[in-house]
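[step 3/7] fold_predict: job queued, chain A
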Amino acid sequence: MRQTLLTAALVITLVPVAFRAETIERVVAVVNGRALLLSEWDTAVRLEALLNRKPLESVTDVSRRATFERMIDQQLLGERWRIPA
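[step 4/7] structure written:
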């Protein structure tokens, strides 16, 4: 009985360690059934800063939000104007 309890305690202790979850990606919005990912948003922010010749440190929360809203608009327009195959 004691060995069974010890084994159960060991299993209960080791199971969470063996199945640790790791966040790989985050979904920030779903538009028309398509997930917009945090990495896509970050890439768009970096690209806009590069195209505007501004350092990445100068990007504000307001400009990040504006980029996010443009991404949503582009997704909506892309779905709306897609020609059926």
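[step 5/7] annotate
Residues 23-85 form a domain with the Triger factor/SurA peptide-binding fold fold (CATH 1.10.4030.10).
Residues 61-80 form the longest helix (20 residues).
exit 0
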